[in-house]
Every structure is written in C-alpha cells, then in structure tokens.
Amino acid sequence: MNPAHFKALCGLLLLLSAPAVAQSGTLHGTVVTQPGARPLEGVRVTATSPALKAEQVGTTDAQGNYRLPRLPPGTYALRFEKESFLPQTRTDVLLKPDATVRINAELSSGGDITVERPVSPGTPQRIFEPLSPFVPPYRAEADGVARVLPPTIPFAGPEDDRERAPAWALPHMPVLVPDGAVQYLYRSADDVPPPEFRTRSSDGVNPTIDTEEDRFSVLFVDVKTASYALARDYLQRDVLPDERTVWAEEFINSFGYGDEGQANGPFIINIEGFPSPSRKGYHVLRVGVKAREALPDVGVQVEFGREAVARYRLVGYERASPAPEPLDDDEEEHDTPMRAGQSITAIYEVKIRGPAIAFGRLHVNYDDPGGSSRRVLMLLPSSVLKSSYARAAPATRLAYVASAFAEKLRGSFWMRTLDWARLHALWEEVGEPLRSRQDVAELGALIRKAQALDKRKDRYERQVPLTNMDLDQAPDAAD
Fold first, then answer.
1. Are 213 and 195 in contact (CB under 8 A)?
2. Which of 91, 120, 220, 339 has its CA 20 to 30 A from that of 202?
3. Model confidence pLDDT, tens digit, residues 421-470
4. Residue 116: C-alpha distances to residues 63, 336, 373 (Å)
C-alpha cells in the first residue's frame, strides 16, 4: 500500500473511532452501611447492560467509592455485594453519551434475630420481626424442627455382647486390653446390618431432595468421630475400610475449622459455598455452628428458599431418623447440649435456580443457661457462594475434601466424576499453613493410601454409563 494512502486510512479510522470514545460514560458512587453510614471497603460492584458484551466489575476503596469508566450508553443494572451484607441491586440506570452518573448504595447486615420462645401451653403466638423486606414470611413454629438423635451402634458392654454382635458391628466395638488402652477388632463382614442401620437412599448415601417436597433440613449436634478414626486405622494397615463403616459427617467433624465466622448470639456461624468439583450445576455449601458458651439444649435447621434452590442433598447423616420433634417438646431425654467451643460442620450439595438476594435461612434453637428458650435466625445471602473452589476459605476447602474422601470410600454415586488423583490435588489446594497441620497432612497421606488400595470397579457403569449420568438423581442400588 502507498505510504500516503496508509496514513490517510489510519487518520480516517481515528476520526471514526473518536465519537465512540467520546460517547462513553461513567458510573460512580459511594457505598455505606445501613445504619451508621460508614464507608464500606471491598464491595463488589457489577454493571450489566444489553449494551455490554460482558459485565463490568469494580470494587469500592477505603472511602467506599467506586468508579466504572468507559461504559457505552444504555440502560444498566448495578449489583452491590459484600460478604455478611445483604446484596442490593439498582435497575433501570440510564447512562447517556458523555454522561457521569452517581449511584450511591446502602448495604444492611444480614445479621440475626434472637427471640424468646414461649413454653407454657396458653401463651399467645408471637410475631417475629422481619429480617429484611426480601425475606419470605416466617414459617409457623408449630411446623416444628426435627431434633432426633441418630441411632448409635452399641459399644463395649457386657462380655457376651461381643459374642452376640454381628460381624458388621465389631469394628465399632472397642475392647479394653490389660494396659487399659482401647483397641479395635477386625473381622470380615459376612452378614448385613439390620434394617434400622441401613441408609435411606438407593445408592447408599442421602438422596437429593426437591425443595417442593421438603425445604427444611436438620443438622444433628451430637456427631462422633469414630468412623474417621476407624478408617484411618484400616488404611494404615493397608486395608480399604468397609463401606458400611464410613459416615461422612464423622469425617467432616474430625477436623477443627477455627473461629472464623459471624458472631450470632452465643454462636459463631460460618456459611460458605463454591461450585461443586464433582457435580456440575451444584454448589458445595459448608454450614458451621460453634458454641461460644455452654448451652443445655441446641437444635440446628437449614431452610432453603424454594424460589432460589431447586434441590439439595445433605452429605452424611444417613443414620438420622426422619421423624420430626416439636420445638416446644421439653422432654429432657431429647436435650442435645453443646459445650463452650464445641462445633458442628455440615456439607450440602445445592442446586441454585438463578440469581437471588438470598437462598435460605439458618435456624438455631437453644435454651440458655437460665432456662429461657431462644432462637437465632440468620439469612443466607447469595454472596457467600464464591465463584470457585480457590476463592473459598481454606477451612471450607478442608471440610469439602474430608466429605469427598468419605464419599469416595463409601462408593458414592456422586463421586464418580472425581477420581482419587483429583481429590488429592484438591487437598493440596487447601493451602498453607492449614495443609501442614499434622491432622490435615495425615489426611493427604490417607487419600494417597486409599488411591493405591482402591481396586473397585465403577459399580454404576453398566447401569448408568458415566457419559449419561443424571446429575440430579441417583439410580437404584447397583449390583
């Protein structure tokens, strides 16, 4: 091309592009707390518009200010998000050519409400204060909360108990040796557990629940850790543990997850999630509740919003009784105490329908030391769902790895897409300094040991090939 023609062409292109640049506008503003009007740093501000090819994202500075420059003219929606605060969305923001538009926001904390619970039969029904205008109406307390302790496998008692015990129960029954130490006996399991110990779902793990059928899920406070200790003993002896002795909730609660979280009354609560590495379309959700003081009776329940959550599955707790117990049942034999510092951690798989302000609520019912019955309610904002495993807190990653380890040993249908090598890689991604902690390092070694020992074939491949796997429901039990 002639140099003169090339220069002329470049000049023409600059002239053509200049109006487009000049027409771009800017959205900016300040985000503060409500109440208090304190500047909020680290708020994620997301702008979406039909005029954009991809969403534009900014973050507020120490003064709560944000700025989104060079935006094409159009109608915008702005979403303001920060962990522990209720997200806010502003729609129909008109940005004209060459304009600078200020959009301020106030974010409210998604905190808790603690109320007294009447215990006398004649007490009138109380009215709860709303958490926020976005929260659906509160469910009547008469609906109840299930707080039935799961049945336990009998432990060492009279000497003849061991002689009468079935083979499957022996690994759970410690014996005392002359020096007073506890040892476990190992024997091949020739018979099967009685019906009351069988799991509720067809594939040996908890089923996936449609929220249209049941949107409430109960967490049992009294969780042991013997199952993980037993599996560790087996693996250290180069033996893969029997699937029927593996309980995911006991694996998860064998690890400490620290004191991070939001203080709510006498509890520290930690809620966080991320896209599932093994089940496409689902999020892993960690729910952690830790007592800050000793409490004589505690019940925990997760309520999923039907508008936001299509399905959910609680990992573990297969032995839990489904029979509910009324909240106002004060019989002492059902009391579930929590000592100061005691915690309970659970893992869910949750299928989100779409964008929402919040996807559920956490109910914690408790009796304080003075005998008053109280309740903590905590909104579960969608902002706790991180965009990836790497963005989740190390403690959340560890809880997931522990649960996935149990499900792999259990032969869970939902772990088919996550092989042992990938699970170990997820353990490595827990990160330092947590990964170097003795119990966490031991977990990594056990995963490697299980990988070397596991020679089982995919029991579902003939019935449901991996390429045709239904990600919402498991098949009937495979042979």
1. no
2. 220
3. 999 999 999 998 999 999 999 999 999 999 999 999 988 888 888 888 88
4. 39, 19, 6
Q: How far apart (Å, rounded) are the C-alpha atoms in residues 264 and 204? A: 35
Query: Which of 215, 343, 352, 327 lies closest to 269 in space, CA to CA?
Result: 343
- How much is the pLDDT for 351? 97
Q: Find tokens 């049945």 and name the residue.
A: 151
Q: Which residues of 243-260 are buried (b: 16+ CB within 10 A; e: fewer)?
A: ebbbbbbbbbbbbebeee
Rounded Cα gap, residues 120 and 258, in angstroms: 38
> Computed over its alpha carbons, how large is the radius of gyration of the chain?
27
Angstrom distance (rounded) from CA 400 to CA 394: 10
Sort 24 into a burial class: Cβ within 10 Å, 0-12 / 13-18 / 19+.
Answer: middle
pTM for this entry:
0.60
DSSP 90-104: EEEEEE-TT-EEE--
To the nearest whole number, what is the mean pLDDT of the chain?
Answer: 78
Per DSSP bridges, beta strands 105-108 and 25-34 are parallel
Task: Output the DSSP codes for 260-308.
Answer: -SEEETTEEEEEEEEE-SSSTT-EEEEEEEEESS-BSEEEEEEEE-TTT
Q: How far apart are CA 190 and CA 165, in angstroms?
A: 12
List, in order of start, the domains of the chain with CATH numbers. Answer: 24-49+63-109 (2.60.40.1120), 112-120+139-468 (2.60.40.1230)
Nearest alpha-carbon partner for 296 in 363, 365, 346: 365
Q: Which residue has the tokens 């593996």?
A: 246
Residue closest to 281 by CA, chosen among 354, 177, 205, 362: 354
Per residue in 346-385, pLDDT (tens digit) is: 999 999 998 899 999 999 999 988 888 999 999 999 999 9
